[in-house]
């Protein structure tokens, strides 16, 4: 089975070289942890360094916002779009529809109007085929869960994940982590789960990454510091975070 | 993308110069933390120092009360209203309607009678256009959430936030924080979240501010002390609060 | 805006001289903390020392009981009633109606038979006008909340508070505090909240008062000891309770 | 107002001489704390030492069982029944009705067959008048709460307590305490609450009593050890239990 | 009133010689604590040493399984059955009915097919009369609670216990303890409750028994170690477990 | 009764030589603990070393995935299938059905299309008979519980376990452990429960196994370290994990 490079310096080493081809990996953490950044870096790195086109499914915010936030790291997503290395699907269930203002300078993307997950899946299949994408990034599962009735959440999330398993893409998905202790169906159904923590140590925050699970891979089991630097996320795989250093509370609280 | 000055001394430094134009920032904290003060200071400072008109949406208390509480800091909101630099929308879902007593010396404001969020949004659009406002402050989301059925909260809050994203205003909103650990939809959907904590240290309280998230900004990640002084809130950005100093309990309790 | 003296020695100093006229202040604490005593002292002190008549709304227990418990402090409420300085409204939703026994020596008071909050509000307005009351004390909001369906609590409490805001009275209300951490709608909607704690220190109890919030006032933020003495409650405003002294548990438990 | 002696050595001193006449006092604690014993001792002591007849309402277990368990302390309840100093009402909502076996040697008592609280109240009134009882002991409120629908608990308990307030009896009631932190309507509506704790200190248990509230009384506020001795409960009112001695967990757990 | 020997070495001493005749005693603890063993030992010991026949009601697992697990201690239940000293009622609500395979070597027992508790009670009465049983052991109440609708649990458990009170048998019942802090109706309605704990001390487990309540008995109140030895359970009544030795978590977790 | 070797070095010693024939053993733990590995090793070891054929029921993931993940340990499941020593039933309730893509190189297995547990049970019976299997491994109960309505979980899980008790197979089942403290019906109904913990010690993870219960067996009661090595799981039965070494939080969190 092939390996797909993470495009995050220091992360490949923790998972025996990369994600397993066609797997579904969940990236979870609190607000500001860097989940979206890790996924965009995965797509941009894949397109730029490994010639692997990718599809971005925006369920949180807007394509324009993500593109703008990516300039900070020197990533020119619009150029990659013009080179047909990245395609964007705008499937935010909370997208604005009331006032008929069309944003100027709209990023080229495909808009999925319906809230039905089957329509989004169909569009994903279309876009993946169109640019022969090998990478897929969905940001984020939490938006999807918030937009549907509580009683439907399980069924819709499992339908999404099960269908994604049959794409010829290696998928990253993000999900907001409320509490390290709660059970979420997306963590259960994913092949791999990466957690991004923000701990408090002294008066500052300390970011730490851990591989919670990665099926079929003898993955690293420690907490490693990571940083959001000028060119994106960097994991310090040779350093470890000792748990007597960190405050009991994650960035979810004190 | 432009930056909007916070008008809080010491706060701009924590978020690379100011809020991102047209973003929606949530200010959250317990009772007495200074959420309303931070928002009023944002509007008054914007009107007075940066020539940026602003709209105030009162969902908690009354316009008269807010104006009176602002005299303490030397802010003359009624004068700014007469100069068309501030407009007030009174949209408190709990406003008094029973006894037909009209308060004397009523502050000029627009009253939104209905509880329908669409009406409030429409009025916001009207007032923003009238004075060409660049700043918007909504106090507070919590009142809105308390006034509707629990099952409608998510939908109404997300409708509000999503519509605000398309205004040409940079919006601050306040929300009461019950517990640092709970998930709230307004925290999730906002671009930025600022938390105002009141910790107990020894026998006194210690106020501390932190930037929980600020999308697209390399924001400060520490706890900094702030004070409510004579001219408003001041953040001591060069000092940090160490978490071994503070009591485990936030001002929510002991 | 005028200030209304608390009539509690040591308390005025903590809130810049007194309550703000026409505000609604919530006094909260566990059983035996002294909530009712603080409110009766407010009324009796106001009538006796400041010539400010007051109305007492009894929602917990009976007028006879409150009068009898007040003798302990040397307060003669029946005399103040005869002097038209205090009026009592008996609006206990749990009042006895089954057996047709009329208590002898009944204290002169107005009985509100219905459980409808509008009737109680109407009666309050009547009594306030009759003696030109400037002070109002409602004991307690908790009885009201227990007497109605859970689903109606929010609406009824907010209706009560919102209507009281338009009276020309400064209102104190009591409420039972189960846990320092829970959110209550009356705390949220009141202008001020005073908490009466009973901590355990060593083998004895230690009473401490704190001003949780007081809108528009630069209030004290520490824990101060208070005592229930022979003439009523006394706050030791120059002393502070350090939180390493006190047991983690409030009088709610251990 | 008169005082009613508790008949528990050491307890009167903690509450200024005794219970206030006609008050309703709740005795709460975990299993084995001695709640029933404290109530029986109150009745037997009242009948034997103070010539105050009493009525016992058995809602938990059977009259036979209570009488048998009282022999241990040398209390001959059946003799007091024959002397018309004690009357028993058997109102256990869980009483056995299926198999038609009548227990031999049945203790003389009045059986309330219905589960309707009004019938029990009526019977109480009858028995109280018959022997001119001044004391009433109901064991226990918890049985009553378990026997009715959850949604009716509040209404039924408050109906019971409110009707009891109009009897010419001083009433003790027992209630099982699950957690020192939970709110119970019977604690709220009673005039006084006495808590019987069983703490763990070292490898043994340590019993401690505290007066949580006693309206109108300047009651003791410490934890005092008590014992179940040969002649009943004895409170060591001159000793105090320091809370650094005791394990954090009450007898509810570890 | 007579005393029934527990048949557990060391246990009689903790409860003044034995169980009170005709009482209902609950034995509670986590998985592997030895609840079933304590009950079987009670029956086998009663039959073998005190000539008191007993009835075993199997609601958890099968009679064959219990007999097989008892060989380990040298107890030959099938021989006691042939001697009419023990009878077995197989009333497991989860018993297998689908595939028509009849287990060979089936232990002689009476099968209660229905799930109706009245049928089980009737059968208990029949079997008790047939061998003039003085002892009854029901394993376990938890199975019964799991097999019925949540809303019926209280009513069914109380019906069971209340009917058992009128048998001429001393009954032991087992129940699974999830948490030492939760309230269970079977603990409340039983005359006695024995808790079997498994604590963690260092890297090993430590078993400890405590008598939580035993009505009418001046029972021991400490934690004592017990062991499951070759001939059954042995309680070390002269030793005590100090609670600074044991880990905070019971065998329910860490 | 016979004993079935676990095929895990070091584990037999903890349970007196092996699982009891025809028992149902639950293996529980968090993500990445090694539950599936332990079960596959059980089947492969049984087939390879003890000539005991086994049936694998895949309810989580796909047969292809499990086979691929097993290569890592040198287990050739497809060869064992061709030798009729292992059979696979693919009964994943979440299996993909939407897009009509048939995976190439499909592993020979029997697909149970329906979600009805009776169909799966029937198929298990068929496959067990076909190869005269003595071992059965179901991975995992959690998938089954997630796929059905919450209200049906108890009934379906108990139906499954109860039917399995009558097979001539010794069954291992896996289940995801959310919290060491919660009650699960599969833990309750299984004869044995093995827990795989991942603790944090310092900056690394420490895997530890414990036998929570094993009916009829005098099982080890300590925490022992285990590792996932090159040839599968190895338990270090002569070493113990002391609980002052480990962090309070299991791998469920911090």
UniProtKB/TrEMBL annotation, chains A, B, C, D, E, F:
It comes from the Archaea. Residues 2-249 form the KaiC domain. Keywords: ATP-binding, Nucleotide-binding. The keyword tRNA processing does not apply. PROSITE patterns: KAIC (PS51146). GO terms for molecular function: ATP binding. The keyword Nucleotide-binding applies. This is RecA-superfamily ATPase possibly involved in signal transduction. It comes from Candidatus Methanoperedens nitratireducens.
């Amino acid at each position: 089975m092939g390996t797909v490079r993470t495009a995050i310096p220091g992360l490949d080493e923790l998972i025996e070289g990369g994600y397993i081809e066609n797997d579904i990996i969940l990236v979870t953490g609190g607000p500001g942890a860097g989940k979206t950044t890790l996924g965009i870096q995965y797509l941009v790195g894949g397109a730029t360094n490994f010639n692997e086109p990718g599809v971005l499914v925006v369920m949180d915010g807007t394509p324009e916002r993500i593109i703008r936030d990516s300039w900070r790291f020197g990533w020119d997503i619009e150029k990659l779009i013009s080179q047909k290395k990245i395609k964007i699907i705008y499937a935010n269930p909370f997208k604005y529809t009331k006032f008929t203002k069309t944003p100027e300078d709209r990023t080229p993307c495909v808009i999925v109007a319906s809230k039905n997950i089957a329509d989004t899946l169909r569009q994903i299949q279309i876009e993946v085929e169109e640019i022969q994408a090998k990478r897929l990034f969905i940001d984020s599962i939490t938006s999807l869960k918030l937009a549907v009735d509580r009683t439907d959440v399980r069924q819709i999330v499992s339908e999404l994940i099960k269908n994604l398993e049959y794409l010829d893409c290696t998928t990253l998905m993000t999900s907001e982590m409320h509490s390290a202790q709660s059970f979420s169906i997306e963590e259960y159904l994913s092949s791999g789960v990466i957690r991004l923590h923000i701990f408090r140590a002294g008066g500052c925050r300390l970011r730490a990454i851990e591989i919670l699970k990665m099926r079929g891979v003898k993955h690293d089991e420690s907490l490693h510091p990571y940083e959001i630097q000028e060119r994106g996320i960097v994991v310090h795989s040779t350093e470890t975070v000792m748990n007597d250093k960190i405050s009991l509370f994650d960035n979810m609280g004190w």
